[in-house]
Amino acid sequence: MEKIKAAIVGVGSISQVVHLPILLGMEEVEIKAICDLDLKKANVIAQKFHIPAVYELIDNMVRKEDLDVIFICTTSLYHFPMSYLALNSGIHVFVEKPIALNSEDAGKLAVLAKKQKKHIMTGMQHRFRDDVQTLKEFIHNNELGELFYIKAGWLKKWSRTMAVDWQTNKQYSGGGVLIDLGIQLLDLAMYITGMPEIHSVRLYDYKLNPGIKVEDAALALIRTESNVIIALEMGWRMHLEKDLVYTNFFGNKGAAYLNPLRINKELHGNLVNVTPMSSETSIERYKSAYEKEIRHFFDVIQGKEKNQSSAEDSVQIMKIIEALYKSSNTGEDVRIG
Q1: d(CA 164, CA 211)
Q2: Lower CB density within 10 Å: C or N end of the chain?
């Protein structure tokens, strides 16, 4: 069988730790090239992973290489133009989150993918965790009853200093901790509950660390059209001894918690733990989610599965992110729709 020809743009940590090792372990995939503005680093990575070609510019790579798919793992600013170039060149795209810095550009990618009859998938690996899939099925089957409250948080532990890099530069990242950590919490809550329509949002954000010009701590309140409240708290450098990451769902018949998964139901007047057994550790769950995500992408482009992290979903997520930032600027609730 002819191998699927792939390339990676951006050879930072996510490429080195996740994408390259996984792709090299897939017999049906051949990595033809990597691309990065830092040619010195790219050449080192190419030698380490035995990649035959290195490019500084994606335009040259797309023109010279015969590619089926491109993985875009650059700073967020370049996600849209590079994805657009690849799709317009007839190449399937896997792009790390966010798909673009705004919903308009995300929508353009969705439209172009359909026009070109190619697929674009956003990297949201949490969707592919076994515990998330289990919980999604429980909620879909109404096991928790009518949901009324979702609370999620990602608070990073304290450190002596905070790194100032592209993620703290709005031009390159599109924002601060909301679009870095909060978008993943939001996507997870929305995905598990079936991408509900949103009524209104409110964001309270803070700049706590010297030299940081984007929000580094925030609280987002989101109300769905069915009156479910989603509360998200996030922070890059909190006064905690260890990271705090959680997602909790509350219904009128039960509740569920992630990290680790626990599902409680009210049965015959008693609170009963109905969590399915799992031997998978948190580290194994983290690694396998990336593997399942990437394998799913290849199944999608081969017509075997429906895209579970589509550009259309990303458009909806980015509209909520935009509304939250608008709320921060106005100091008021923002209606969506």
Answers
A1: 8
A2: N
- What's the CATH fold of domain 4-124? Rossmann fold (3.40.50)
Q: Residue 162: what pLDDT?
A: 77
Strand duo 217-224 + 198-206: pairing:
antiparallel
**Is the Cα torsion angle 105, 56, 16, 25 positive or negative in sign?**
positive
CA–CA dist 129, 283 (Å, integer): 11
Contacts of 113 (CB under 8 A, 6+ apart): 87, 93, 119, 120, 311
Kindly report the number of other CB atoms within 10 A of residue 252's CB atom.
Answer: 11
pLDDT mean by block of 10 residues, the chain; 337 residues: 95 96 97 98 97 98 98 98 99 98 99 99 98 97 98 95 83 96 99 98 95 95 99 98 98 97 96 91 88 98 98 99 98 94
The fold of 127-289+317-335 is Dihydrodipicolinate Reductase; domain 2 (3.30.360)
Would you say 120 and 106 are in contact if contact means Cβ atoms under 8 Å apart?
A: no
pLDDT at 279: 74
Whose CA is closest to 139, among 74, 194, 84? 194
Coil vs helix vs strand at 311:
helix
Q: What is the pLDDT of residue 286?
A: 85
In whole angstroms, give the CA distance from residue 212 to residue 205: 13
Cis peptide leading into residue 260 (ω within 30°):
yes
Q: Which residue has the tokens 């608008």?
A: 326
**pLDDT score at 282:** 78
CA distance 297 to 123: 10
Write down the residue that tokens 């990242």 correspond to.
173
In terms of pTM, does the model score above 0.70? yes
The residues spanned by each domain of the chain are 4-124, 127-289+317-335
Report the pLDDT value the prediction gives residue 44, as an integer from 0 to 100. 98
- Strand, coil or helix: 17: helix
